[in-house]
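User: Batch of two.

Assistant: Item 1 of 2:
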Amino acid sequence: MNERKIYPLKIFALLCLLGCFFFACSSGAEFSPKDEGGVLIYYKTGFDKKRGDFRPSRGASLSFTEDAIYGRALEALCKKKWAGPALKIHISGSKALKIAFMAKGINFKRATLNFFDQKAHDNTTPYGYRFLPDGEWTPVLYYVDLFHYNSKNSGYIRAETEFNELRFWGLEPANEKVILRLDNFVIYRGEDCSPPEKIKSLKAISTPEGIILSWAPPKDNVFTMVYVISRATEKGSFKKIAETYRPLFKDRKVHQGVTYRYRILACDFQNNLGPWSEVFSIVHKFPTPRSEFHETVYERDRKQYAAHLREVHRRGKGKVNKGLVVLFGDSLTGPTLYPRLVAGALGIYRVKAYGFAGQTTGFGRRKVREILAKERPEFLFVMFGTNNVRGKLRTQETYEKWVDDLIAIVKEAENEGVVGALATIPPRGFKDPLSLPEALFNKLLVSRAREAQIPIAYIFEAIQNAGPRQEFIWKDGVHWTAKGMELAAWTWRQVMRQIEFALRDKP
């Protein structure tokens, strides 16, 4: 063969190989881990300067929006089923790997995502997709080593993985738009124990609508998740008044001519509290803004137990498994779906469940030490009593004994530095609209729990107010449907938000 014909072929082949190499290197983001404050950061973006290497997938269109936590956020309009933003990645190993971000869904009800493991040739998926209340910014933390393979619905993924794509996906759009917004997105490995830095740029202005506070997000190795606002009058002591996800807050509960002092701290996705900012003082110059505030029963309860919970939580520091919630109860706690829904509702926690069919409050009192010793959770959420009451009216003394058991369970947890909460038991059957035996038991439970400064999840009340009981209670009149479990999960979310509010505070 003529040598002159060989060289062009060789050059062409070499150029093709180089082109493939450069294409491979340029497709997807760089995922070399960087050690930041005790964790390895693989990928981090606030979307303020660029799209963050996300691309549209399956009929999604991506753009920026100023409806953001700060600056800009990524918006995905999902025009077809399975559409969403996708990210090419190169991350080996699932151990202690986490995905954290802020999300807002519009008809995008769950933070649904797939994480493809090319080593297993299978997508991996969270057991409990995090709930996205419609139109609200919501913090999300996923523990990747607790994912499962899509080909299985049990067990966890392998430690030896090769992740090469993360993809969010939405449901089939109906008449409404399906939109997912993302901000402060990070993939990291390890337990984050480093709090955000001190906020250094707090400002405030007095307006007819109230005092408006603003500040720049402080530095953090992962990302700030939420801000805590504390306020005092000129000579009074500081008191926490609010939380906000954005570095902006409007205080409407102010009066003309009064001097207010403010300080703010930042909290990250693993509930590490940063230091307080310097105090900013301002005199409100305008008449009191007109506003309507409706305090919920959960907020009223929190005022009674907040200081007590902070003391319990302080005792557990360094002894409990931070971020672990254990559900403890009878067969209502037993269904596989239940802890997954609770994890989805709580948003940033690991959730385990111990449900014992047919068991009563007395069993729970005897069993709790074993559960606490095994798991050492940060939180213990308890619901026993259905197998005690059994739809029958009992004497006051009998109810008192059962509630004694429940109070004792939580006090046992508190002795170990574990924050406990109790739930009212669901209504029973369909003939008695009041479910009177359960209602009387729950009334006593609520009264005693408040006296003992224990948070309460009002599951009975939530079901009674939600509509036809048959939608939430199974045909046996005792156990709940999937819809009932989801309602209970939302109820646990309500009480957890108040527990968090109490714990995200310090002198």
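Item 2 of 2:
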Amino acid sequence: MSEAYSAKIRKPMDLTTVECQLLVGSRYAGPEDFVQDVALVFANAIRFNKDGRDIGDPLSCAYYDASVHLLRYSRWLSHELLSDHLEENFHIDEPTADGLPPFSWKLTSGNRKKAREEMDRLVLTEPIEKSIEGDRYTWQEAECEKLLKVLRHQSDLRYMGFFIQPNYPHDYAAFISNPMDWEKVNRTLKKRQYDKFGGVISDLRLIFSNALKYNSQLQGTDTVSGKAYAAAEYMSSKLEAGINKMMLSVSDRLERERIDHANAEREIEAQDRAEEAAIRAAWKKEPDAKENSSAPAATRPDITQKIRSVRSATQRREVTDFEIPFFDDEDNGQHERSYFELVKFQKSLFEKQRKESSKLSQIATSCAAALYTRLLQRQFAEEWLEKERKESTGRSQENLDDVETSTEKKKEVDETLTKPSSVLNQLEQKGRPIIKMSLEKGHGRRKLTKRSPTIKFD
């Protein structure tokens, strides 16, 4: 341990020492003593690295930010995992004057409520990083999926069976204005329609709050509603336990990503400052070179070549998508601007152009999709119109054929009716003998039989 550390920290502590004392079994009188030693580890790191952070030392800043997060996270973790040892009072440990988390705290219900509010502000409002529908979930979407799987465990199907599929009673809408079920939440998540963690959690809580509201009148009975009410109570408590676990893991990862991002930015800034200092040092040598300008050209150093070599040596090794500005030998009025200011300007300009290009690409894609849809609709309309035209033409031709057929038949009937028969023609002939008709009488009594009367023609 260094003398500088001993001068600032009176009571050193580390996690290995805490673990050894915990395994001994007789060093800690209660859970609060153990928690205070854990908090002391990170509180010492904050005190030791505060001065370096104030002057902008990258390493001190990294340790300081990590210690602040771990101190806050250990407080959240202690109140969740040691909830059976909490005191039922409203005592809340206030943060320090610098706005840092308290360096020590008591295990009370008030502190637990305060820690939960901090996690809610951090997690529930955090936008979910979305993936494309059908692709692999991002880690944030995977955390939401884990929360759904907590409710679909095989051992809980007898309770969860009421809430998976939308099987609502006929009068459900009269009591519940916003129905919700597990399948609907899962479908919405797969379509990437959730924007924040709070949306997923609120919909899952709505499933069981609706069930408790609708079945409250028959709670405790051996009816379907009574069983649904008991299942909603059980699954609601299991959901809250899953939410607490997700809050801890998500809040820890979000803070770690924020710290990593800040450290990366500090490293880039440190590299920029070092490169700028090297270039400025090269520029300061220019007056000395001007004093030697009276020397022969063969012995006078080439100032331009020196500056170029310094710039080439200090050029950043990372691959960039934008063009590094090139310095001409002639003075173009930008000699007062440093190399890295130009690099930052070029980078910001490139980022702006890339965003505009992405925006134009999205607009072009949407316009193309709309145009394709219109052309497809027009093609379907033309095909339908051509089909209707053919069908109407066919029906008109059939009607015309029927009309012609009926006209011909009518003409034949009229001709048949108007044409005189052969009998009438004979009757109308002149000089023909007169036809006489009489009935012939029968002779004697005969057996009556059915026979047609005999007609005799003279």
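Strands lie at 437-439, 455-457.
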